[in-house]
Amino acid sequence: MKRFSLLSEVGKEYGSNDESFAEELLHKISLLNLLQQVATAANETSDPESLLQFAIDRICRIADWELGRGYLLNRNGELEPVSVWYSREKDFPNDLREVLELDGRSKFESIARRAEREGKPLWVEDLREEPQFDRIFSVGKTSVKSAYVIPIRVRKRVVGVLEFLFSASAPEASLIEVLFNVCSQIGRVFERCESEELLREAESHYRKFVEQIHAIFWEGELKPLRVGYLSSEAEGLLGFRSVRWTGDDLSWLSRLHPADRKKVVLCLESLSEGDSIEIMFRILAQDGRVLWFRNIVRAVKEKGIFPKLIGVMIDITEQKSVEEELRSSREQLRALSARLQDAREDERIKISREVHDDLGQLLTALKIDISLLRGNLSNDAKESARISRELKSMDGLVEKAIDSVRRIATELRPLVLEDLGFLEGIRWFGRDFQDRTGIFLSVEKKGNDEKFGKDISVALFRIFQETLTNVARHSGASNVRVSVEGSESDVVLTISDNGVGISETDLVSSKSLGLIGMRERAIFLGGELRIRSEQGGGTTISAKVPLEKRGRRL
């Protein structure tokens, strides 16, 4: 009666002959209600089959269709009917049910499978033309004559099919549009369920993996920040049961090393959905030991609720111990290397002094003796000429020996560093290098003109010497540019050439002792050495050393 009254009222509004318009309007309203109901059900359910049943029931009632059913793809990717049915007739013909149940084993391709294979809706106007339904019509107990089949998609993949059988005419465009929307909502539920299943499987595999590597798997909440689950490995590694971590909000925090607590809280609170982070911190075990852990954490949304944290803590105490031993060994080796460098410098100074003072004086005395001999030649002109030539040759050799002694003494102990400073020292050495090799060398000064301490001057000068030695031996360069840039805090020495460059293999080779020694000199002074090189593009070596180390001016 209510429906008739509503139709009458709408009819009066548009005229007595417009009840058909009112009927159509109510039909469209019912379709909109259907969409709303399916959307609501899709948001509330996690069972695709129950949503299929809900949608098929309401579609068949609104469209006045006799029969509706659902199909889903099984794990083998095959379409098979599920126990989702709608029948307008109370006593559903057993023959019809049997035929439809057996369609999966029919030698003919069913219309549902055809729609799934083609991936698009299928309208069958006359079911008598479909071999699948021969038995139905031979029984003669059904009024259905047409069918409409529409696939359910997750993205571009078909996961199921809705099949409707009816005696009415072809469905109108508005109903087809609603069917598309309904299938889209159902597909969304399938996608969500698949994602949740994949997540559960991943978590299961993850937990098994964690248990095998003796790590601690945990889950927690971000707001408030607390641990809700801790795997059983916690008791074996830390010595206390997991419930000791999952009590109040701050119980887990008290187990962290005091120096690491603030860092851990700040890192976790900075996470947003989908973010992941890796933190290393210490935990105080039950027996008082301090254990190191690497904590890999990810923020996720589960069942529409955010934020949730999942993570794994891997015991890296042994690794940290090895790293500490390695770091200590490196520091000891570095200190030993520095002492050896100092010993070498002292030995160089000693050798330089002996070469300069002893050998230099002997050569100078020999040169004087040769000059005296020239003045005491015999009166025999022929014999005097011969001896004079030999003395002149000896004098030239002695002069060369004196030059060599001076050069060796200077290289061993660059007095110019002490007398004129670092900048003039490398300029002097650069001029000598250019004269000896023919490779053009320029020196540029930037920044302040402060004289560096002895340690810095000697270290940078030795790096400079070693670099030029490598340039002369290996680079094939024709030009070298040197830059010295000083500031209030550090000094940077940069040497660039236009040679063939250094290969990656040579850069990391343990045989490149010259490069290793240069790097160690810079590191010992608290600095660094960087090498940039390209095959055929030259090499740039940059040594940066701070003017202060451990609060002491060098």
Automatic annotation (TrEMBL):
It comes from the Bacteria. Pfam families: GAF_2, HATPase_c, HisKA_3, PAS_3. Residues 277-328 form the PAC domain. It catalyses: ATP + protein L-histidine = ADP + protein N-phospho-L-histidine. Its cofactor is [4Fe-4S] cluster. Its EC number is 2.7.13.3. CDD domains: HATPase_UhpB-NarQ-NarX-like, PAS. It is found in: Cytoplasm. Keywords: 4Fe-4S, Coiled coil, Cytoplasm, Iron, Iron-sulfur, Kinase, Metal-binding, Transferase, Two-component regulatory system. GO terms for molecular function: 4 iron, 4 sulfur cluster binding; metal ion binding; phosphorelay sensor kinase activity; protein dimerization activity. Its main location: cytoplasm. Member of the two-component regulatory system NreB/NreC involved in the control of dissimilatory nitrate/nitrite reduction in response to oxygen. NreB functions as a direct oxygen sensor histidine kinase which is autophosphorylated, in the absence of oxygen, probably at the conserved histidine residue, and transfers its phosphate group probably to a conserved aspartate residue of NreC. NreB/NreC activates the expression of the nitrate (narGHJI) and nitrite (nir) reductase operons, as well as the putative nitrate transporter gene narT. This is Oxygen sensor histidine kinase NreB. It comes from Leptospira fluminis.
